[in-house]
Specification:
Blueprint (H helix, E strand, L loop, with lengths): L2 H8 L2 H4 L11 H9 L3 H5 L3 H7 L3 H21 L4 H20 L4 H15 L7 H7 L5 H24 L5 H22 L2 H11 L24 E4 L2 E2 L14 E7 L4 H4 L2 H11 L4 E7 L9 H10 L6 E3 L4 H5 L7 E5 L5 E6 L9 H14 L3
Parallel strand pairs: 3-4, 4-5
Antiparallel strand pairs: 1-2, 1-5, 3-6, 6-7
Helix pairs in contact: 1-10, 6-7, 10-11
Protein name: Thiol-disulfide oxidoreductase ResA
Pfam family, one: AhpC-TSA
GO molecular function: antioxidant activity; oxidoreductase activity
């Protein structure tokens, strides 16, 4: 895992609160572009707590869900694009989603959603064109804000590295980030005029507790049957027995592997124990074997390996790597956890217990949390 992912996973709401570092010493236009590419709307609009805050009807929730379905496949794979292409893609997807939502929400609901989006930007909302205009932020104020942001970003980057190096605990990182936030907010108050300070309230509305936001990732992709074969209990199946959409109400653990990969093999006992311990509670474990070596491209060898490895759950032999591409996967092994509504909630790249990391324990705890959630 990258250090930025580590800090976001330890404190997932940092992403929602707008604390993902944007490069310092950037131009005014670059700062606008960077803020426009933050996926806060894509993240929050899928969560139940936001639906309640907007007072969506059941019909509206269904319509929002359909709108999400249009953008999620592209948004999910955009995470592996180069930064510039990713930024362009996210801005386009946000525009598409906003176009759909304007036809679904009432005027009051739309106003509230805009307020929530500005809250999600946190202090960085002063980079938004409509905020600059509404508060009449001057050209002399903007570089002073950017200097504050640069200082906070440097602190976050340092904490990311320390967390990655295990020099500090997640709790210590959270405390330091909270201090950095506090200092940044105080610095901004010193820059704002009293009139500007009074104008912030209408832009953000009443404070929303983002701690209640659980779903911030896309819905899991559907399994691709083209160029793939399902295997169950060491037997090749002639049809596609499982669709992701049929697993609503279940918690799903999907893992990409290659049977000759030693790092994958070290995760096998975890998957088997999850299936043995938690299947009766509503967990479905599914393996996707995407080949890397010539042996891993053989249906016979892959099927035989599922028997040797003792897999009692379904395995999808992804011979043409279509599922790999659809999921935007980048390495073996990778494990994804999907909640009862079909949304990705967490993933882990590599061996879960690499060099003493208690990854399996953390993932198992996440599974239990998802199992305990209401449908």
């Amino acid at each position: 895992m990258t250090s930025s992912l580590a800090i976001v996973r330890a404190f997932p709401l940092l992403l929602v609160f707008g604390l993902v570092a944007i490069a310092s010493s950037i131009s005014a236009q670059e700062s606008v572009d960077a803020v426009a590419a933050q996926p806060f709307l894509l993240q929050m609009i899928r969560d139940d707590s936001v639906h309640r805050e907007l007072r969506l009807t059941e019909e509206q929730i269904t319509q929002v869900d359909e709108a999400i379905g249009e953008v999620d496949p592209r948004w999910w794979v955009s995470r592996i694009l180069p930064a510039e292409r990713q930024s362009t893609e996210i801005k386009e997807l946000i525009a598409i989603l906003k176009g759909r939502l304007k036809g679904i929400l009432s005027a009051d609901q739309w106003t509230r959603l805009e307020q929530l989006e500005r809250q999600a930007h946190g202090t960085r909302m002063v980079r938004l064109p409509e905020v600059i205009q509404a508060l009449d932020i001057t050209a002399s104020q903007q570089p002073r804000f950017e200097a504050l942001f640069s200082k906070t970003d440097a602190t976050v980057a340092s904490l990311e590295k320390q967390l990655s190096d295990q020099a500090i605990t997640p709790e210590q990182a959270a405390t330091e980030i909270a201090n950095a936030q506090k200092n940044e907010r105080q610095g901004m108050l010193d820059i704002f005029t009293s009139e500007q300070q009074s104008g912030i309230g209408p832009l953000v509305g009443k404070s929303f507790d983002f701690a209640g936001v659980k779903r911030t990732y896309p819905r899991a992709p559907e399994f691709v049957s083209d160029g793939a074969t399902w295997i169950q209990d060491g037997v090749v199946l002639s049809s596609q027995p499982i669709r992701m959409s049929d697993l609503r109400g279940k918690v799903v653990a999907v893992y990409f592997y290659a049977f000759e990969c030693i790092n994958c093999q070290r995760n096998f006992p975890h998957y088997k124990s999850w299936h043995e311990d938690l299947a009766d509670d509503g967990l479905v474990v599914i393996g996707i074997q995407t080949p890397e070596t010539s042996a891993e491209r053989s249906l016979e060898r892959v099927t035989s390996a599922t028997r040797t490895d003792g897999f009692k759950f379904p395995v999808l032999f992804d011979q043409a790597s279509n599922n790999w591409r659809t999921w935007g996967n980048t390495m073996w092994p990778t494990t994804y956890l999907i909640d009862k509504k079909g949304f990705i909630r967490r993933w882990w790249q590599g061996e879960m217990n690499w060099k003493g990391t208690p990854g399996e324990q953390q993932m198992r705890e996440s599974i239990r949390t998802l199992l305990a959630e209401a449908e």
